[in-house]
């Protein structure tokens, strides 16, 4: 029996080491995305929520590892995860737009500082011994399920845009591998709080890998601007480009964006004789149809429609 316990402990230690290695790869898998953010000096619209939630989860698992004896391997990897996720959030705050920075700062203060501090304070004061471990363990399970569900927003983005640009295959692959390793570690350590959430993590990871294989060769949706034809009143024709010389051929103004735009004639300004000018204070000019209109033209802007092409 002692030999079996030793062997079980050895296997648990082995899976724990493997879990640390695989989890480190999971933490580092967004590096290509953040390198692109650094190179382009823009977050390009992606959200910081998964990194904030992951940091919150790492803080809770560190707290759990402090409370439960024999959980040193959980402590090491989650401490490293806290450092890495903090660096990601800091880079996001540097390159994100102002509104996104404010939202991220509020979530960081409210979730990773406020809520974690509140949980630690309440569990330290209201529970003791094994009860405290169980309470913190169940909180960790709930948050771990939230971490595994966080990529659902990215999955919706992939389906809508038909692009896997912000869902790298390496992240999904290492998520599945990490879930398998940590499930085995929790089962061997008889730690239900470690084993349980990794079942859902495995399912989400497989779903992301399947989605990646389905959309990896799809052409992403593009946004095309289409200018509608400018419909002008019969007595007004607006100048589209430059002025034409007196007595010269009419110039044409064209807008090229994939839609047909009819040319617009530029009309010469013809001075009115002094008798007509004296009849009223307002200066008028005569167009090619012998009609009078005010000297200041009415500015007419074409409507713009956005069409998404798959």
TrEMBL record:
Q: What is the stated purpose of this protein?
A: Mediates both low-affinity uptake and efflux of sugar across the membrane. Mediates both low-affinity uptake and efflux of sugar across the plasma membrane.
Protein name as annotated: Bidirectional sugar transporter SWEET
Can the keyword Lipid metabolism be found in this entry's annotation?
A: no
Its transmembrane ranges are 12-38, 50-67, 73-95, 107-129, 135-159, 166-186, 192-215
Membrane topology per the entry is: Multi-pass membrane protein
State the family it belongs to: Belongs to the SWEET sugar transporter family.
Q: Which domain of life is it from?
A: Eukaryota
What terms describe the molecular function in GO for this protein? sugar transmembrane transporter activity
- List the record's Gene Ontology CC terms alphabetically: membrane; plasma membrane
Organism of origin = Triticum aestivum (Wheat)
Q: What is the lineage of its organism?
A: Eukaryota, Viridiplantae, Streptophyta, Embryophyta, Tracheophyta
Annotated keywords:
Cell membrane, Membrane, Repeat, Sugar transport, Transmembrane, Transmembrane helix, Transport
Where is this protein found?
Cell membrane
State where it is primarily located. Answer: membrane
Question: Is the Membrane keyword given for this protein?
Answer: yes
Gene Ontology terms describing biological process: carbohydrate transport
- Which Pfam families does this chain map to? MtN3_slv
The record's PANTHER family line, in alphabetical order, gives: BIDIRECTIONAL SUGAR TRANSPORTER SWEET15, RAG1-ACTIVATING PROTEIN 1
- What is its quaternary makeup? Forms homooligomers and/or heterooligomers.
């Amino acid at each position: 029996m002692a030999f079996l316990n030793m062997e079980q402990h050895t296997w648990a230690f082995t899976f724990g080491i493997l879990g640390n290695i695989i989890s480190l790869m999971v933490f580092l898998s967004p590096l290509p995305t953040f390198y692109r953010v650094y190179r382009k000096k823009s977050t390009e619209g992606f959200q910081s929520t998964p990194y904030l939630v992951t940091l919150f989860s790492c803080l809770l698992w560190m707290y759990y590892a402090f409370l439960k004896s024999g959980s040193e391997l959980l402590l090491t990897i989650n401490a490293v995860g806290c450092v890495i996720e903090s660096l990601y959030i800091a880079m996001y705050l540097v390159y994100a737009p102002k509104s996104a920075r404010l939202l991220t700062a509020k979530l960081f203060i409210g979730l990773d500082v406020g809520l974690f501090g509140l949980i630690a304070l309440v569990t330290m004061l209201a529970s003791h011994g094994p009860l405290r471990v169980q309470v913190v363990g169940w909180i960790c399970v709930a948050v771990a399920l939230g971490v595994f569900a966080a990529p659902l927003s990215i999955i919706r983005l992939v389906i809508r845009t038909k692009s896997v640009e912000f869902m790298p295959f390496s992240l999904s692959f290492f998520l599945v591998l990490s879930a398998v390793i940590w499930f085995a570690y929790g089962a061997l350590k008889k730690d239900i709080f470690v084993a349980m959430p990794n079942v859902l993590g495995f399912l989400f990871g497989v779903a992301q890998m399947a989605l990646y294989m389905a959309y990896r060769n799809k052409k992403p949706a593009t946004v095309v601007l289409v200018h509608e034809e400018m419909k002008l009143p019969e007595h007004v024709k607006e100048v589209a480009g430059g002025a034409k010389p007196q007595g010269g051929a009419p110039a044409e103004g064209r807008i090229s964006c994939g839609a047909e735009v009819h040319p617009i004639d530029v009309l010469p300004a013809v001075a009115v004789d002094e008798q007509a000018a004296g009849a009223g204070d307002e200066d008028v000019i005569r167009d090619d149809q012998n009609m009078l209109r005010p000297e200041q033209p009415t500015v007419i802007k074409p409507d713009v429609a956005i069409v998404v092409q798959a």
